[in-house]
Amino acid sequence: MPTYGKLDSFDESEDWTQYVERMEHYFNANEIDEEDQKRDIFLSVCGKNTYKLIRDLLAPAKPGTKSLADLTKLVKDHRDPVPSEIIQRFKFNSRTRHSDESVRTFIAALRSLTEHCNYGDTLNAMLRDRLVVGIKSDRIQRRLLAEPNLTFEKALEIATAMETAEKNTQDIQASGTNGTFQKQINKVSKSYTRNNSGNSKQGDCYRCGGNHLAAECRFKDAKCHSCKKKGHIAKKCRNKSANGNLSENHREFKSRFKPRAHFMEQDESSESENEVYSVFHFGNKSNEAYKVQINVNECEIAMEIDTGASVSIMSEDTYKEYKSKFRIEPTSAKLRTYMGEQIPVIGRAIVNVNYKKESAKLPLLIVKRKGPNLLGRDWLNKLQLDWKDIFSVVGSDNQSSDLNVILEANKEVFKDELGTVKGMKAKIYVDESAVPKYFKARPLPYALKDKVEMELERLEKEGQIQQVEFSDWAAPIVPVVKENGSIRICGDYKVTVNAVSKLDNYPIPKTEDLYATLGGGQEYTKLDLNQAYQQIELDEDSKRYVTINTHKGLFRYNRLPYGVASSPGIFQRTLENVVQGIANVLVRVDDILITGKTREEHLNTLSEVLSRFKRIGIRLKKQKCVFMAEEVVYLGFKINKHGIYPVESKVEAIDKAPSPTNVTELKAYLGMLNYYNRFLANLSHLLKPLHVLLQKDTKWSWEKEQEKAFIESKQLLKSASVLVHFDPKKKLILACDASPYGLGAVLSHKMDDGSDKPIAYTSRTLTSAEKNYSVLEKESLAIIFGIKKFHQYLYGHPVTIITDHKPLIGLFREDKPIPTMAASRIQRWALTLAAYEYTIVYKEGMKKIKEGTIQEKLNRITPQTTTGLAPSELLMKRKLKSRLDLVFPNIEKRVQERQQKQKHYHDKKSVNRQINVGQGVFARNFAIGSKIKWIPGEVIKQSGPLSFHIKLQDGRVIRRHIDHIRVRNFDCTNNENEEKCDNDSDLFEPEITIPISTPETEQPQIEKPSNMTEQMEPRYPKRIRKEPSHLKDFVLK
């Protein structure tokens, strides 16, 4: 019978109650009901340290003689003895709200203290009383005491509302002068202690001595003439004390403002601040610490940046949590606070520190106090911190506290362990008739062999893989080196299971579809899953298909591995089912983004997502998560409330790319550039010289034209504008245009200030057939291209289509019927547009000559000194005509000469044909089977310019075109003319010849044949014989 899950040995850092709960779930999942079997399983997997503890507690009895419930209770009583109810109630009743603590954080602390107080049904009443007594705000306390029939829920609502109102009032009052204060890097005190001296004036400014706050002083940007520093004037300079010239005002200032300089809080009820040194702070009363996540001995630890601490320290609580990761040694170092208080030091450790791409071995002191871990100057000198990310976090104490409450309530989600999605197992569908494929292990580089073996050991210890002796299926492995130097093992399943399995076609959302839902977001939270795919278990039948073959033998995956073709679809379906029904959550495989129109909405969404992850068993990697940030990088784009931007690092990589030397490198460059094509207008037109090199049977030739397009494409990307978020409430504008080589469109929003802000750009090149379209058809195609490309945005929303081709207004205007006489493709495009709610307008002024246009045109048609040709001639391979040609000298005379010459040649070949009514003619006979081609008759009527009615000799009347009529000069009824009627050659006009003559001889008159009358004229122009030029010196006889 297969077993579900794996029961690990008990880790001393884990909570015992949680371990017992996991063990009960394991028994239920595997249908283990016998108590003796449960006890034996527990004793066999609990671990040697736990087993020894049980034996010691039971001695001289044996553990096998007790029940499972007795054993677990025995360990619980030993590890977690029930604290005294009196002491717990004393701590609860002594707890008061700290000065830097929000109301909600205070309530959360009170609730945690009531765990062993056993208040029962009176819990809410006790919480209400403690809230009123310990709130430490006279204004809120008076308001609560004045409320009749006050309940805990009502008290919490009132206190929270008043706290928020006070904070908002302070922000409004400070906005006129101070604006938003960026937090400084040093730890600062939240307040300053005043003496009770009655001589002190409340508003004295330390910058100039005036009666106002320092933050409002007009000398806050002034430069001191004494110390040359900025922020005060000479009479209030504190550096004068070094020369014994301490001013009276400064002595008074020092006596009035006593800095607090505590190092760590000594117990939970202490109200002292956690500052390590003295720094005065004015204006903004917030002292939220700047923290940074540092990887210390492979443990992600939050450290508070403190430039006043000469060394970096770790608190005792943090050390106990990661005790197994640190090896400490005794030290003689002594630490003292600013006030002279000595801090006990447990020991010193040399630790491996990793921060982003930096790593170093640095000393760390462990102190026997509670409080934050401090990153001192010794580490700051060795690490280059990302100050931009650290300074970007600006928020109030309430906001940070609310986030911390949510994270603390769901801290199980961030455990450093492999999660397991509950209630589902992935299945890989393979045809039963498929032939198993077995590949032997590939040889590994010697430098990677040890790392691969360590990774295999880790995966096997975590239960992700298990070693097997035999398998019909086996795929070689591909070790991937991560940025931190570790190894990720991936099976090359494309040669095995992927070739015969049925692909899970669950749709992966498009990037543009996800970004279309970000409108209105103010802050963003990005969640990163810990070993995403491996959190889903495989069913038993599918495990044999994902066996990998290594130099250590065969291993079979128990979890969904990377590399299987169906893994993305399976994982996408799973996560979408988990977050289904939650608004403002974007999921694309293992990338999750959360936002909200307000901070409260954002926090509620985050809380719901984390709660669902907690219930279903998903684990997140906290050090890679980003919470409540104003700007994040998601799916390769930078996002903030204003819009979407390219990522600077990717733009820099494209900008530094060298010129391609072959087609493969060119494709790689175009692939990187096209990733940001939504930011680039008319990209296809710009890249035309590069696309030519990708055509089949085109020889590689990188010329100046290609290099220019290559450089301009980089410049276009670097100057790309921000793309605003799609907002269905704003008006949509679609501007389309076409060129001889490509199509372009831009979708924009009409903003409240009347400006147009782009949402996305798009373009493409024209096919060889589309290049033959007329200008009207190309401009129409540009509109259809833009409509189809942005269909998800436009369908169901009114849109204004802008074109610079005015004839399209008559074709596609929204209030006109579909043109029935237009070309077929125009009719099809009109039907396509009919499905949208649009208004098409002509952009007035788009074709008008703007300032500088004439100069640009002159530059394009003027020959350059270097090439001798105009730029337009170099581009089009021919000289372009312009209206400036009309101002050239003698242009009118040249035109007249051309026209006369054209008339002369035309008159040479033309024959004036004339047929009159009553004239005898021959008409062409089209009767089938008749041997007579021409029939004699007489013209009786002219029915058109070139059409005549002819009466034949048998009385019939026919109609013929002038081309089918010949003039008749004899009577066919006579027997002597019958032969002429049958001979077609006698019907044509005789050839007119011009004899060759020399220039000295006169041209003789042309004699007409005897059978031609005055009415007869030649039907077709005849060949005119001319004297050959090479015989001009000879006389022909």
Automatic annotation (TrEMBL):
<keyword id="KW-0863">Zinc-finger</keyword>
<keyword id="KW-0255">Endonuclease</keyword>
<dbReference type="InterPro" id="IPR021109">
    <property type="entry name" value="Peptidase_aspartic_dom_sf"/>
</dbReference>
<dbReference type="GO" id="GO:0003676">
    <property type="term" value="F:nucleic acid binding"/>
</dbReference>
<feature type="compositionally biased region" description="Basic and acidic residues">
    <location>
        <begin position="1016"/>
        <end position="1037"/>
    </location>
</feature>
<dbReference type="GO" id="GO:0008270">
    <property type="term" value="F:zinc ion binding"/>
</dbReference>
<keyword id="KW-0695">RNA-directed DNA polymerase</keyword>
<dbReference type="GO" id="GO:0003964">
    <property type="term" value="F:RNA-directed DNA polymerase activity"/>
</dbReference>
<keyword id="KW-0548">Nucleotidyltransferase</keyword>
<dbReference type="GO" id="GO:0006508">
    <property type="term" value="P:proteolysis"/>
</dbReference>
<dbReference type="GO" id="GO:0004190">
    <property type="term" value="F:aspartic-type endopeptidase activity"/>
</dbReference>
<keyword id="KW-0479">Metal-binding</keyword>
<dbReference type="Pfam" id="PF13975">
    <property type="entry name" value="gag-asp_proteas"/>
</dbReference>
<dbReference type="InterPro" id="IPR000477">
    <property type="entry name" value="RT_dom"/>
</dbReference>
<dbReference type="InterPro" id="IPR001878">
    <property type="entry name" value="Znf_CCHC"/>
</dbReference>
<feature type="domain" description="Reverse transcriptase">
    <location>
        <begin position="461"/>
        <end position="639"/>
    </location>
</feature>
<protein>
    <recommendedName>
        <fullName>RNA-directed DNA polymerase</fullName>
        <ecNumber>2.7.7.49</ecNumber>
    </recommendedName>
</protein>
<feature type="compositionally biased region" description="Polar residues">
    <location>
        <begin position="997"/>
        <end position="1014"/>
    </location>
</feature>
<feature type="region of interest" description="Disordered">
    <location>
        <begin position="997"/>
        <end position="1037"/>
    </location>
</feature>
<dbReference type="Pfam" id="PF00078">
    <property type="entry name" value="RVT_1"/>
</dbReference>
<dbReference type="InterPro" id="IPR036875">
    <property type="entry name" value="Znf_CCHC_sf"/>
</dbReference>
<feature type="domain" description="Peptidase A2">
    <location>
        <begin position="301"/>
        <end position="379"/>
    </location>
</feature>
<dbReference type="InterPro" id="IPR041373">
    <property type="entry name" value="RT_RNaseH"/>
</dbReference>
<dbReference type="GO" id="GO:0004519">
    <property type="term" value="F:endonuclease activity"/>
</dbReference>
<feature type="domain" description="CCHC-type">
    <location>
        <begin position="223"/>
        <end position="239"/>
    </location>
</feature>
<keyword id="KW-0862">Zinc</keyword>
<dbReference type="InterPro" id="IPR043502">
    <property type="entry name" value="DNA/RNA_pol_sf"/>
</dbReference>
<dbReference type="Pfam" id="PF17917">
    <property type="entry name" value="RT_RNaseH"/>
</dbReference>
<keyword id="KW-0378">Hydrolase</keyword>
<keyword id="KW-0808">Transferase</keyword>
<dbReference type="InterPro" id="IPR050951">
    <property type="entry name" value="Retrovirus_Pol_polyprotein"/>
</dbReference>
<dbReference type="InterPro" id="IPR043128">
    <property type="entry name" value="Rev_trsase/Diguanyl_cyclase"/>
</dbReference>
<dbReference type="InterPro" id="IPR001995">
    <property type="entry name" value="Peptidase_A2_cat"/>
</dbReference>
<keyword id="KW-0540">Nuclease</keyword>
